Amino acid sequence: MKNLQNFFAQFSCINCGATYSLYEILYTCRKCDSLLQVSHDLNALKSYSPKDWKKLFDSRLGDVRFPNNSGIWSKREWVLPSIKVENIVSCGEGNTHLFDASRFAKDLGLESLYVKQCGISHTGSFKDLGMTVLVSQVNQMRKEGIPIQAVACASTGDTSAALAAYAAKAGIPTIVFLPSGKVSTAQLIQPVSNGAKVISLDTDFDGCMAIVKEVAKEEGIYLANSMNSLRVEGQKTISIEITQQLSWEIPDWVVIPGGNLGNVSALGNGFEMMYELGLISKLPRIVLAQSANANPLYLSYLKGFEEFQPVEAKTTLASAIQIGNPVSVQKAIRVLKKFQGVVEQASEEELADAAARGDLYGLYNDPHTGVALASMLKLLDKGIIQKGEKVVVISTANGLKFTEFKVKYHEESLSGIHSKWKNQIYSSPANLGKVMDLIRKILLN
C-alpha cells in the first residue's frame, strides 16, 4: 500500500452536517449547537481493499517501534491521517489483552466470553486511547502557532489521570476539576503527580462539567472532555482491536459501561467504519450498562428513547459513571438505535457481586466492569442475551485503582451489600498440624 498519507478528516455536525477543520477550537456546531464528530473521507479509504487494510493493520501488530507500538497510531490513517509522526504524543496505549473467560462462559452457557482489558494501559484506563489523539492534535496545533495555553477537563478520576500524563509528556499545562470527596485516592494522586493544576469543587461531576465548559470559552484553554470528538476517535479503536484479536470475526454482543456516554458512541463508530469499508459483514449488538444510581439513559431507553431527562446522580461505587447529565447522549442514542442496542442497569449489590464473581475466573474487576458484568448476567437471565452466543465485555479501568472497594467487599464492610462471593482470610498458629487441620476444613467447604 502506497500513498497512505493521502487521506482526510474533519469535524462534522451530527445533526446538520456542517463541517469544520480539526484545527478549529470548537466542540459543538456553530449553526445548530449539536455535538461534532470526526468524519473521514471514506471514498479515499475505499481505494484500498478490506484485505489490504487487514494486512496493513496485522503487519503493525506487535511492532515495538514508534508509532506502531501504539494500538491507536498503528491505525492512524483511520484516526488522524494528517498528524505528523513527530507530533504524536504516545505512551504505548492500546493493544490491550482480550481476556478469554472460557470457564466463566461455560458456566453461563455462552459460546464465548471475552473481557477487553482496557485498564491495562499507561494510566490504568481506556481514557488513554482518546487522550493520545487529543493531546497529539493539540501538540501539532501549538507547533503550528495556534495559541493554546493549557488543556482542561472535568473528571471523576480517569480522564484527569490520562490528560495529565499525556500533557506532561508533551509539556502542555493542564487544569483539572474534580468533585470533592468523590474520587478515589489512587485516581486523585495521578494528576497531582503529573503536575496538573488540580481544583477540587464542592459539587458532583455534572457541576464540574458545567464549570469547565465555561472555562474553555476563554481564549487559549482547550477542552479535553469527551464532548470533544477527538477523544472519541482514539476510543473507537477498541472496536478494531477486538475484531482483529478475534481474527476479524464479530461477537454477537458487546457490553460497555457508560457515564458521559462518549465511550459507547466511540465503540459504535469503530464498528461502523469497519462495516462501511468492508472489513466486517455485520454489526454486533451493543449493551450500554449503567449504575442504577446514575441511570438517565436507562430511563430513556424504557420509553423508547422518545425523551431524555437528566437525573441527579446518587453516590455509586462505580464513581467514574456517576453522571446524571451526560454530554454525549445524542451520539449514544444514535449508536444504540443503529446497533439494536439495549440499556441495562445494575444496583450497588449487583455490580459488587458481579465484579467479585468475575474475579473468581482470574479477572480483577473494577466496579465499572462490575456494572457491565452485572448487566450481562441480568440480560442472560431475561433471555435477551441467549445461551450459545458470543459476548465481549469492555473493562474500562484497572482494578488496582479500586483496592479499597475490593478490600471492603471481602471484609463485608460495604454499606448495604451482603458480599455473596466474599473470600475471607484465615488465621492459624504457625504449627503444621494446625495448618493441615485448617486446610482440610477449608477444602471440605
Task: Provide tags for this entry.
single chain, 445 residues, alpha/beta, Rossmann fold, 6-stranded mixed sheet, globular
Molecular structure report:
The radius of gyration is 22 Å and the shape is globular. α5 (158-170) links the parallel β6 (150-154) and β7. The chain has a domain at 98-123 and 232-411: 3-Layer(aba) Sandwich (Rossmann fold). It has helices spanning 42-45, 50-60, 102-108, 127-143, 158-170, 185-193, 205-215, 229-235, 237-245, 262-276, 296-302, 329-338, 348-359, 367-382, 403-411, 432-444; strands at residues 9-13, 19-20, 36-40, 98-100, 112-117, 150-154, 174-179, 197-201, 221-223, 253-257, 285-291, 342-346, 390-395. It is 38% helix and 14% strand. The strands form three sheets. It has a six-stranded mixed sheet, sandwiched between helices. α4 runs parallel beside α5, α8 crosses α10 and α10 packs across α12. The protein has 445 residues and is α/β, with parallel strands linked by helices. The mean pLDDT is 95.
The CATH class assignment of the domain at 98-123 and 232-411 is: Alpha Beta
Through-space gap between termini: 61 Å
What global shape is seen? globular
pLDDT averaged over residues = 95
Radius of gyration: 22 Å
Q: Fraction of residues in helices?
A: 25-40%
- Give a count of the beta strands, DSSP E runs of length 2 or more: 13
CATH fold-level label of the domain at 98-123 and 232-411: Rossmann fold
Which architecture name of the domain at 98-123 and 232-411 does CATH use? 3-Layer(aba) Sandwich
Number of helices: 16
How big a fraction of the residues is strand?
A: 5-15%
Order of helices and strands: EEEHHEHEHEHEHEHEHHEHEHHEHHEHH
